[in-house]
Hints:
Blueprint (H helix, E strand, L loop, with lengths): L17 H6 L9 H24 L3 H26 L7 H11 L7 H12 L17 H5 L3 H10 L5 H15 L5 H31 L4 H31 L14 H7 L3 E3 L2 H7 L5 H6 L8 H11 L6 E3 L2 H10 L2 E3 L4 E3 L1 H7 L1
Amino acid sequence: MSASTLETGRESPAGSLRPVLAAIPADAYDNPTWKGLAYFGRDLVVYGACVLALIHWSNPLIVVPLWLLATLAVSSLFVVGHDAAHQALFHHRWLNDLVGRIAMLPSWHVYNAWIVGHNRVHHGFTVREGFDFVWHPYTAEQYAAMSKVAKARHRVEWSFLGAGAYYGREVWWNKMIMWRAPHRIARTVNRDRALVGAFVLAATAGLTSYALAGGSSIAGAAWLVARVLVVPFLGFLFAIGSIVHVHHIDPEIKWLRRDEWTKFAAQMQGTTVLRAGKGMNFFLHWIMVHVPHHVDMRIPMYNLEKAAAAIEKAFPDTVADRPAHFRDFIANSRKCKLYDFDAHRWLTYSEAAKAA
């Protein structure tokens, strides 16, 4: 199947993104320093308030709602850091890097390792077989060759409840914490890894000292560390795993082999525009409007809707644009288990077994 047969609407010559980039208005790239700092400051305040509240209250009836809010607060800061890592939030690289490193600390993310895996690999080779490692699908044959343990892990991680486990293992652990960076960037990556480790250790030590000084037991100190530091991080893993899943896993999204892959097909049809409500956009910063972000990473988060409108006007019936519903994530996770690269279709486990 050629790349041209995978494109609909107004096609781009030789799969180029140049016509799409030309459709984006110049003001979609505006990123005044005050605006980026305002979002960063606001999200820091919300996160700080969650931390203080979780320190003060230990009643589960209060703690559980606070965990949900803290998960969203960590996600908000992560999206700010994500934009900074793309050099989209500010004009100055040093300010992007400073804000990006700080904003990614509550999510325990290694800034420069994230840049390599996300900016260069995921964005550079979106939905390309053998390259894009984020939610890369297995074929029925690959699944059949797995051990029983590997099959069980796949069934957990590719369920909607396992999105956090998948992201935590495949992206956070393998591609950041344990990743061995090339020599030319190893020092920078190791420094950022040490920064994350220092943040986690300092927060753990501070919370433990605070609890013991207040007369708590060792168990009480552990509970304080868990509810303030660990559970919001685990909640974030589920949130980001789910979000990235709906960005690139859908019955209508095709993963492509090297000879089929083009920038146009990957960035215009390898992801979606999902319209979240104002409440969710307060925390997720329009990251669900994902097509323009993949077309050009330099567009700041608060201008993605403007860019999406221009792209969809220039290329009608090309971009998947629909409301964001959690039930759709659940439905997609049930339909999209394995992938047939020949037929370009997703398979459930039962469909794969019947095909075999």
